[in-house]
Amino acid sequence: MVKKNACVFISGSGTNLKALIKSSRNYNFPINIKYIVSNTKKATGLRFARLYKIPYVLINLKNNLKTEQLFKELKKHNISIICLAGYMKVLKKKFIQRFKNKIINIHPSLLPKHKGLDTFNRVLKAKEKITGCTVHYVTDKLDSGKIILTKKINILPGDDNAKLKIKVQNQEYKAYSEAIYSIYR
Fold it and tell me: Can you give the CATH number for the domain in which 126 is found?
């Protein structure tokens, strides 16, 4: 099997990155993670880049010169797909257009409900009975691209933000890999 080269964008702890790296070590998984991008040096997920010896870069994509440098790096690494995994910045329209249908994201709700930030709080305030996560293609409209896959969880009476986050993240670790399998089937 010829695997596709992937780049993962992160901003935080990198737990979805870690799950994707683990999946990518499987012979049958369709991607290899060849490059990691973070918008902050405070992203603790960069430890996985160092641990697994995956090249990474810290870059602020608000700067057009930096964006062009990133395009060159992605081309150099022959990147076929970009996975946003806890990347907390909105990508520029130009960037999204350049990689149309090649950028995917995981969001901690059942889209189209609860787009954007502060998801768990909003889910609880809406008194939802079910929530989950969604893997979708990235478009220039926030959390609005074509849905690839969803995973659902029940919200129990004692669930708070912290409990909900753990339950949803456990589904995210499975969902992202399953979505990538489905893309390259």
Answer: 3.40.50.170
Tell me the HSE value of 139 on the side-chain side, using a 13 A CA sphere. Answer: 7
Q: Which of 77, 107, 114, 136 is catalytic?
A: 107
Query: CA separation (Å) from 175 to 58, 136, 149, 182?
Result: 26, 11, 7, 10
Q: What is the mean pLDDT of each run of 10 residues along the chain (185 residues)?
A: 95 96 96 96 95 93 78 94 95 92 98 96 97 98 97 97 97 98 94
Which residue, among 92, 117, 86, 103, has the nearest Cα to 11 in the 3D structure? Answer: 86
Checking DSSP bridges between strand 4-10 and strand 56-58, what pairing results, if any? unpaired
Distance (Å) of CA 154 to CA 158, 159, 160: 11, 10, 13
In which order are the strands placed within the sheet that holds 56-58?
Answer: 56-58, 31-38, 4-10, 79-84, 103-107, 130-137, 147-154
Instruction: Kindly report the pTM of this predicted structure.
Output: 0.95
For position 1, what pLDDT does the model report?
Answer: 74
Range of the domain at 57: 4-183
Sequence length of the chain is 185
- Number of structural domains (the chain) is 1
Catalytic: 107?
A: yes
As a whole number of angstroms, the distance between CA 82 and CA 14 comes to 15
